[in-house]
Fold this protein.
Amino acid sequence: MVRRAVISVVLSACGYDWSVVPRPDASVDATVDATADASTPCTSIKGQCPHDSFCEFPDRLCGAGAPGTCRPVPPITSCDDAGKEIVCGCDGIVDVTRCDVRANGFDLSKNNTACKPKSATATRCGFLFCDDGTRCVELDGGVDFRCAP
């Protein structure tokens, strides 16, 4: 605990940008095209967008369908819990908001079977998981989803 605090103080003093915090397993890919900008087309969840961007797929299939577009990663500090949901990302990890998934450098995934909700009674709803007492509502032709009462 003390070691982590010391590292945090040292990095803060050196001007480290804490607004974008990557996941431990999302290391910088050596194949990233450094000349790509935030509007570059992409077909993979990693490696084609700049390190401060993620590939957003219009069909939410994480590259298995239509190609995507590199989008800027939102600062983690811009995410709040107001829109709390159980959300699946292309990395197979469940987060609490859509913003959290994107701030970690990934798009939303409606086909990633690696995502497992913490609640055994939650049901799959595209890239979301709906709790008991709610139903899945498909929007925009299966590109967006909501859990409704």
About this structure: The chain has one domain: 23-148. Confidence is low (pLDDT under 50) at residues 1-34.
